[in-house]
Design goal:
three-stranded mixed sheet, 3 strands
Length: 538
Amino acid sequence: MKENLLELIARDYFQYLGTHFPQQCASDEFYFFPRSETAIEHLNTLDDLRQDKIQDHVKYLRRLLVKIPSELAHDLEEKIDLHLLKQSMESFIREFDDFKVWKKDPTLYVKIPLFAIDQMLSQENRAQAHMRSDLLSLFDQIPNFLSVASHNLHNPSEMALKVALDMTQDALDYFKHDIHAFIMEQLGEDEELIKKQGVVLRAWDQYKKYLLALPTVKSFAIGEEGLQKILTLSWRYSRSPEEILRIAHDASMRTQERLHALAGQIDPDKPWNVLIYDKFPQVSSKEDVLALYQKEVEALRRFIYSKDVITLPPCERIVVRQTPSYLQSLRATASYRAPLTGRKNGQGVFYITPGQDDLALIAGHCPYLSAHETYPGHHILDHLRIHHPNPIRRQIESPLFYEGWACYAETLLDEFGYVQNPRQQLVQLKRQLWRDLRAILDVKLQTGMISPNQAAKEITALGFSSSRAERQVRRFCMTPGYQLCYFIGMCEINRLRDQFSPYLDLKSFHDTLLEGGQIPFHLVENRMEALLKTDRGH
């Protein structure tokens, strides 16, 4: 009876959010939303962010939350489902009722329409008539959606406003050039669409003027208490920000020691941060970088399939593309867009942002960055989630698990012998040092221990251009708690591997880790312990 109740609550939850917030449920940009399958049915509708409706949504979810039974039968998988559902609901409530993202984040009103348009244009095998109809619908909604921001936003941070202004300018450029070109080339110079495109352009321009006049507060930091809430409620992670800072500092020292030691073996007369640039691939254009990554992804796919250390998902497909213009102020070097949940045959997209000022750096990171985003990283994990038979595990993801797995995936290249050149292995150690720093900066920025300018200097010291460092710091400031997920998630996976490697071979470890879904790591540990007990019982 209770099991059926949980299934009904879960179905109600996913359908409710997928109906009212289809764009945030469809995009993995919004980590505090589930990947509701219902969102597919509403992709031509923008999310409902009117103040009175937001209060209704929060009340509805609170009522659903109290319906979840406090205990289920002793079955571990049922307990995990209950745990995940509570975690997802509490994360939404924290973001919309406690933090009130709809009041504080002006980028929210830029991202949602842009992701909606991009999602629409990216759909495969769409009939022209359907595409036209959906674009007209979105064009009609965008001006009213942007006007909602003027009723909602109240004293955002200076950093949030700066990012929103950059993104709004990107939106203007995107509609003026990319969208216009699409209409002209793909939809037969449709006069009605072109006219409504002009209306949308004026709405973006009006939103930009509104932002320029919007009062702000200086601080973006959520403080130690706010960061602890994210760790506890959204990540279900027990360590404090202070503990994470200490662990990351210790890891950074160890990584630096390894970098110095490996550099000494290669050439004792040169430091690692000089050696690392000696043998980067020679590229001279953005096209060269994209071609390099395309070739790498294909090679990685063949390699990972040949190793047979993970049970790989069916029907997986991926394409490499340059990051869309409207995303380039938001993304750093690379990102991954998963297929929509509910479309098992959809293809993933690996986005690369090849900035002209650091082409060689991006090229040098190619094997590891490709592994992080594609094989066996995000692309494989997302496809495993999309094919999961359990609807709760299929529609809920965790940044701590998601980013931790992708960082762990990078380390497998050295372990499996895909990368054997010590100079390339310096890049992987540098990437580990980068992850250590991200965890440190996440805690320090959100607790006021360091300024954005100081954080940018620490990033440029690792070899990133000043412009890319500035974009990264902006993202760190706007996504509290997310940057530490890379480091902490990988630490937890390595801890579990050390703990269970005497009992499970590598493929069994990976499969057990991944088949449970993106669940908190203490529950992964419980699943592995249960597996061993069952095996011993037999």
